[in-house]
Amino acid sequence: MDLGIRGKRALVTAGSKGLGRGCAEALAAAGVDLVINARGAEALEATARDLAGLGVRVTAVVADITTEVGRQKVLQVAGEVDILVTNAGGPPPGSWENWGREDYLSAIEANMLTPILLMKAVLPGMMARGWGRVVNITSQSVKAPIASLGLSNAARTGLTGFVAGTSRQVAPHGVTINNLLPGIHDTDRALSLDGGVVKARGITMEEARAERMATIPARRYGTASEFGAMCAFLCSQQAGFIVGQNILLDGGATLATL
Ligand code: NAP
């Protein structure tokens, strides 16, 4: 399917690996020029080279997107963008008794304020030009809480509330905002969470993964490329009537009728 976005310009934050990279790849395959960002230069440059191999222009910006300085650096290089995909690392697992004010503030900064401030920066330009697409990578934890990821549950639900209202305010100007909610996907993040289970329970990585897969009706982890394909579709011309939605990509893991 031709997504109708060839020649558009996208900013994908936290895009050197995993789900962010999956989104950047799918947009590049649709002919979208990219600005991608991450903290680590090596993986970012390697990803930028791979994406440029798909025939689009790619600019890499090394920065911590969860800091004001990092966001300003990225936004300055990005300039006018038609598409914004917001992403950042997820908060660490743990338990409510051990989290203090600083832990909550870090999670809110990374997974709520960062996407909000990035949207605030690019939405006026999109609205003035009469076209824009925003996709925020959040988590299945906004539909059904994952207790050990309470920091994520809290911060991302705040973002979800913001998007619910704001998406309706910008839609009259041809701009859509939607959230993609990943369940378990085969990325470094999943590997690190599985590693925590291995350590805590003294089981092997294969056992930890098998246990987790058994909880997913699709009986496997998702892939970054499947995730990226849905992201690119939400950024397409065809998706212009999809506004303020939360789309779960979890292999059926969240047991809910709606
Ligand atoms: P990942 O494989 O660990 O990749 C994270 C990417 O983000 C890397 O490119 C990393 O590069 C970059 N990044 C991390 N922190 C950053 C920062 N402060 N500034 C700029 N770039 C940053 O993670 P993932 O699995 O793709 O997860 C992406 C998001 O989806 C996370 O928020 C995660 O919590 C959420 N999520 C993932 C899953 C899953 O199963 N994978 C499920 C639910 C939710 P650098 O480290 O070099 O910066």
Keywords:
single chain, 258 residues, alpha/beta, Rossmann fold, 2 domains, seven-stranded parallel beta sheet, 8 helices, 7 strands, 47% helix, 14% strand, globular, binds NADP nicotinamide-adenine-dinucleotide phosphate, SDR, SDR_fam, NAD(P)-bd_dom_sf
What can you tell me about this protein's structure?
- InterPro entries: NAD(P)-bd_dom_sf, SDR, SDR_fam.
- Belongs to the short-chain dehydrogenases/reductases (SDR) family.
- This is SDR family oxidoreductase.
- The radius of gyration is 18 Å and the shape is globular.
- The protein starts with 8 loop residues before the first strand and ends in a 9-residue tail after the last strand.
- It is built from eight helices and seven strands.
- Helix content is 47%, strand content 14%.
- Helix 6 packs across helix 7.
- The chain has helices at residues 18-29, 41-52, 68-78, 101-129, 150-170, 188-201, 205-214, 224-234; strands spanning 9-12, 33-38, 58-62, 83-86, 132-137, 175-182, 246-249.
- A seven-stranded parallel beta sheet has the order 3-2-1-4-5-6-7, sandwiched between helices.
- Helix 4 (101-129) links the parallel strand 4 (83-86) and strand 5.
- The model has no long low-confidence stretch (mean pLDDT 97).
- The chain has two domains: 9-183 and 224-249, NAD(P)-binding Rossmann-like Domain (Rossmann fold, 3-Layer(aba) Sandwich); 184-221, no CATH class.
- It is of the alpha/beta class and 258 residues long.
- NADP nicotinamide-adenine-dinucleotide phosphate is lined by residues 14, 16-20, 37-40, 43, 64-66, 87-90, 137, 139-140, 182, 184-185, 187-190.
